[in-house]
Amino acid sequence: MTVLVKPQKLADAKVREFSMLIDGKWVEGVEAGTIERVAPSHGVAVSRYKAATRDDAVKAIAAARKAFDHGAWPRMTASERSGILLKAADMIAARADELAYLDAIEAGKPITQVKGEIAGAADIWRYAAALARGLHGESYNTLGDGTLGVVLREAVGVVSIITPWNFPFLIVSQKLPFALAAGCTAVVKPSELTSGSTLVLGEILMEAGVPEGVVNIIVGTGAAVGGTMTGHADVDMVSFTGSTGVGRLTMENAAKTLKKVSLELGGKNPQIVFPDADLDAFIDAAVFGAFFNAGECCNAGSRLILHRDIAEEVTSRVAALSQKVKVGDPLDPSTQVGAIITPQHLEKVQGYVSAAAGSGASIALGGSHIDFGFGQYMAPTILSGVKADMAVAREEVFGPVLSVLTFESVEDAIRIANAVDYGLSAGVWSRDFDTCLTIGRKVKAGTIWMNTFMDGAAELPFGGYRQSGLGRELGRHAVEDYTETKTLNMHIGARTGWWMPR
Predict the structure, then answer these.
(1) Are 396 and 424 contacting, i.e. CB atoms less than 8 angstroms apart?
(2) Rounded mean pLDDT, 302-306
(3) 502 vs 500: CA distance, rounded Å
(4) Cβ atoms of 381 and 312 closer than 8 Å
(5) Is 264 a catalytic residue?
């Protein structure tokens, strides 16, 4: 049986009111409509936002454009920008409890987990601040006596940043500080389901000294403002994290004006396990990889690809450990799996489980929702006997559902791992280095973990192959992604005999 942590009722929950940040001012919006967020864990309203319209998006873009073309931010020294980003990082750390509560209550995420995310986000802001001072161009004094070549690296301009609901504060922190470090200005749209922490970030940035108009934050649906943010002629770049389907639409819209686009999209990530693996270490990683963030994670290890000789034993052990996972109240520090983001998403996740069972898969654990009387929760679920052509093995479920497949040879494991449209990450477990390296080189994914899973650091690039996206976030080149290069080809002295004879 799954360990349940029953949520305490929030009978006296206070609804927090938020406005939008446009050109350094907190505004109501053109039509002043509202979006009310009901906590997925407790079923009561906890946040209320002013809803942006297309006109609000246009005003935010205009403010960012003015701040870039005429304002101080792109013209500051890297040292000055770095200092402000460092101050923001300190303020994020100082308000960590407030930020963590907002993400926990709006997204249904376990509070202990979110506190770790906020600490990680503050570290990313510090890393971006360091990269700001290392951004540089190139010079070429090797082109002959009459030529000097210089390559400048300049901020790309106005960036539209669109972030999802599953890691509200962490993902905006994987984008915005690097754009700011490069000297860009931005319009940010967090998910309308989880906008609170991003709006608090706006307060932090203003207090830290970011000038008016450099960061603008609007709240609204993709239908209302997403098209404007991705297609407007005054936007120079789009950075989007979300589903692959919406990523395609984003790219199509940005293509109308040939913008630079960075996309971090879905994943269907395998963990490949060989008989010589350290199974004790793997069992823990399998449970963590599948059920961390209730499986609402693009990096989730949602496919176990087990060697046939160990499949039965490993599945049994994973199921046994999964029964110890604590599911329930995200505000309880002991909780490991919180709520599902919306009732509609819970229904979608359950639909994948039902379809797999109907196609011959066996439910080794879970398989149904958990009824606390309010909110929406899903029991950690393990499906065995899954075939590679089943939807649950090919599509991103985005819930606490683990599919178990089997293989017989290295080639077989690679074929199964690559038999999906995604390529975000993968794991391989073996004591044999040759086996790990073979898998690492032949599986098509942006990150390959070897004898670990879902480790990360600000220094390591993150992104995917194929329909998992375009470009990379984090790493030492992250600030460069928000720049363009400009070549200065300079002639020294008088030029003669250039083309026509004299």
Answers:
(1) no
(2) 98
(3) 6
(4) no
(5) yes
